[in-house]
Specification:
With 449 residues, this protein is an alpha+beta fold. The chain folds into three domains: 46 residues, no CATH class; 224 residues, 2-Layer Sandwich (Nucleotidyltransferase, domain 5), CATH 3.30.420; 77 residues. The protein contains 16 helices and nine strands. The strands form two sheets. A seven-stranded mixed beta sheet has the order 3-4-7-6-5-8-9, sandwiched between helices. Strand 8, helix 5 and strand 9 form a beta-alpha-beta unit. The radius of gyration is 34 Å and the shape is elongated.
């Protein structure tokens, strides 16, 4: 085999095969050499391709990644047995939190569990093996203050050191507090721990505040994002904040030799995310968990809390929250929770009384709900009719209640909002009640020859 140099002069390519006297071993060595040279050219082209490490690296890129990162974010380098990381002590935020009182709210952590807030910044939005958490913010409550520490990954090879530091900061069996962390942040960290052949820290509980915000406050928020909760509940506004979709590219630019200064904005963004977790917990504590402040809370918040308590079988507490919501709504009728807030709340109160085994109070509550104008009035009259027919054996009263419900539906039809299904059911109920009354009259009429 004869070899000729390619025009670029950087590798060799086979052009012809020599006579049959050449040995097979020599041909294999030459082929292997050619293959290795070609692979070298391809790797070099891969490194210099667009989107990879820039061909011309800035002068600052000559410094180690950890040093550049620490200087940009005002952190310190921690040398561990498995690599180097950058640690930022973000200080403490005074934040009072009554753990005993907060635990009264379903889904909140027990008072004896260490409380740890956590948020990550990652190289993507997936939780697969290709996504890495390069920044982990962790905050713990200590004597009425929230102490925040941030751990940064200078390079992928140092991930084991980052995970060591995360495990040390989280500690033993805490109650973890995140925002959408049940489906993203924590599963991602668990996957990274497993890839390094070790178990993730065990948790005593996981409080995902996204679920809390959706369940208690979604009625007065445009969206359930953390920033929406900050603006709508905490009255906080962020300025010069980095957008979430920008964060992965800023980190990749740094790894390719770009400046580290833009990552300082990412660190500030992460710090505010973690602090907001603590602020949201404190907001729930002082507005809904505090029994003295709860009656003054937004009526929609109290109604949402009543639904949460009812779902956990705490009907007495649910009734108290409903009473508070109804009282607050009557004092502030424009702070509604639905198109017919008062009727909906009165109906919920009647159902709760029925579950508590208080039929007389339930009937009075249904009658009160039926007198409120709105779509729930007809349904309330139907419930009154059921009680009169089955519990009190007052068929005539049940017929009158059914007629009141039909009158409300007829009014809605005249306004262009018909409900054919409800009308059909009520007409069927009315016909059955009329037949029952006629049968009872026939049975009471004396027989004559």
């Amino acid at each position: 085999m004869s070899l000729a140099q390619d025009p670029a002069g950087s590798s060799l390519t086979p052009t012809a095969v020599a006579g049959a006297g050449n040995s097979g071993a020599r041909a294999e060595r030459i082929a292997a050499s050619v293959t290795g040279i070609t692979l070298g050219r391809r790797l070099a082209a891969f490194r210099d391709s667009p989107g990879r490490v820039p061909a011309a690296r800035p002068a600052s890129a000559a410094r180690p990644l950890a040093e550049r990162l620490a200087a940009a974010v005002d952190g310190v380098i921690i040398d561990g047995r498995s690599g180097r990381i950058v640690r930022v002590d973000a200080g403490s935020l005074p934040l009072a939190l009554d753990r005993e009182r907060l635990s009264w709210i379903p889904g909140q952590p027990a008072p004896d569990q260490p409380l740890v807030c956590l948020d990550t910044e990652t190289t993507g939005l997936g939780t697969g093996t290709g996504t890495v958490a390069f920044l982990v913010g962790i905050a713990r409550w200590e004597a009425g203050t929230l102490r925040l520490v941030q751990l940064l990954l200078p390079d992928h090879g140092d991930e084991a050191a980052l995970l060591d530091a995360v495990a040390a900061e989280i500690g033993t069996t805490p109650a973890l507090v995140t925002y959408n962390g049940r489906t993203f942040d924590w599963p991602l960290l668990v996957a990274r721990f497993r890839l390094h052949g070790r178990a993730a820290p065990s948790l005593a509980a996981h409080v995902d505040l996204l679920t809390t915000v959706r369940r208690l406050f979604r009625h007065r928020l445009d969206r359930a994002r953390l920033r929406s909760a900050e603006e709508g509940l905490l009255d906080l506004r962020r300025f010069d904040d980095v957008e979430g979709w920008e964060i992965p590219s800023l980190y990749f630019d740094f790894l390719r030799g770009g400046p580290a200064d833009p990552l300082a904005r990412v660190v500030r963004h992460n710090a505010e995310d973690v602090r907001s977790l603590g602020r949201l917990l404190a907001y729930v504590d002082r507005t809904l968990a505090d029994p003295h402040a709860r009656p003054s809370a937004h009526p929609g918040d109290q109604a949402s809390l009543a639904g949460l308590l009812r779902a956990h079988g705490r009907h007495d507490d649910s009734l108290a929250c409903l009473d508070g919501a109804i009282g607050a709504l009557r004092h502030a009728p424009h702070a509604g929770v639905a198109s017919d807030p008062l009727g909906a709340l009165l109906s919920a109160r009647a159902r709760t009384l029925r579950r508590l085994g208080r039929p007389d109070d339930a009937r009075a509550a249904w009658e009160e709900a039926a007198l409120v104008e709105g779509p729930d009035g007809a349904a309330a009259w139907v419930e009154v009719a059921k009680i009169l027919e089955h519990a009190e054996r007052d068929v005539q009263g049940a017929l009158r209640a059914t007629d009141r419900a039909l009158a409300l539906l007829a009014r809605r039809r005249a306004l262009g909002r018909p409900d054919p299904r409800a009308e059909g059911l009520l007409h069927g109920r009315r016909a059955r009640l009329v037949r029952r009354i006629e049968r009872s009259r026939g049975a009471a009429r004396p027989r004559t020859r």
